[in-house]
TrEMBL record:
Keyword Transmembrane helix in record: no
Tagged with keyword Cell membrane: no
InterPro entries listed in its UniProt record: Flavoprotein-like_sf (IPR029039), FMN_Rdtase-like_dom (IPR005025), NAD(P)H-dep_reductase (IPR050712)
Protein name: NADPH-dependent FMN reductase
């Protein structure tokens, strides 16, 4: 595209921290799509590998040294991102606590940036988690992408090597990433001309 040179930095935030989780399979599939694009560069932030602190300091106080160490592994990566994709399962009709915790530890890192969703689960495919995440992300001044990728009965959608068996999911991924790229470039360009006000 004319006028667009630098690829967008996309932080892929993986929310599942459960033992025996399916998130790595879904994330590998997604990053395969991201790797095929010249306009997007992925940085996978897996909350099972880089957990956030779970106790917030008293209002007006600084986080503990241990909490600052944990945040230092994630916060700069979220700040550097131009866009996000949240990979989430659905737990009890909602999203995992690890995602909410990561969102709540950050503020400006989300401001004026687009967020896409890839969800997975049983019958609902994680869509109830996504609908709740849309409300949360609006509160932190992020822009959510309409199109999603949702894996219903996710465990049957991939073969034993982790390859997706559903061509419709690949089509959905392209639509999601096309929208994410459009919004990412539009918002990055706008913020380069005028400071975002939250």
């Amino acid at each position: 595209m004319p006028g667009i040179t630098e690829p967008l930095r996309v932080a892929v935030l993986v929310g599942s921290t459960r033992e025996g989780r399916f998130a790595p399979v879904v994330t590998k599939w997604l990053t395969g799509h991201l790797d095929q694009r010249d306009d997007l560069r992925a940085d996978v932030v897996d909350l099972a590998e880089t957990p956030m602190p779970t106790v917030f300091p008293a209002f007006g106080r600084q986080p503990s040294p241990g909490a600052r160490e944990q945040l230092a592994l994630v916060s700069p990566r979220l700040a550097a991102a131009d866009a996000f994709v949240l990979v989430t399962p659905e737990y009890n009709h909602s999203f995992p606590a690890s995602l909410k915790n990561a969102i709540d530890w950050h503020g400006e890192e989300w401001h004026g940036k687009p967020v896409g969703f890839v969800s997975y689960g049983g019958l609902s495919g994680g869509l109830r988690a996504v609908e709740q995440l849309r409300v949360v992300m609006a509160e932190v001044n992020a822009t959510t992408i309409r199109n999603t990728v949702s894996f219903h009965d996710a465990w049957s959608r991939f073969d034993e090597d982790g390859a997706c068996k559903d061509p419709a999911a690949d089509t959905a991924a392209k639509a999601l990433l096309d929208q994410l790229a459009w919004w990412g470039h539009a918002l990055r360009d706008a913020k380069s001309r005028r400071r975002y006000v939250a």
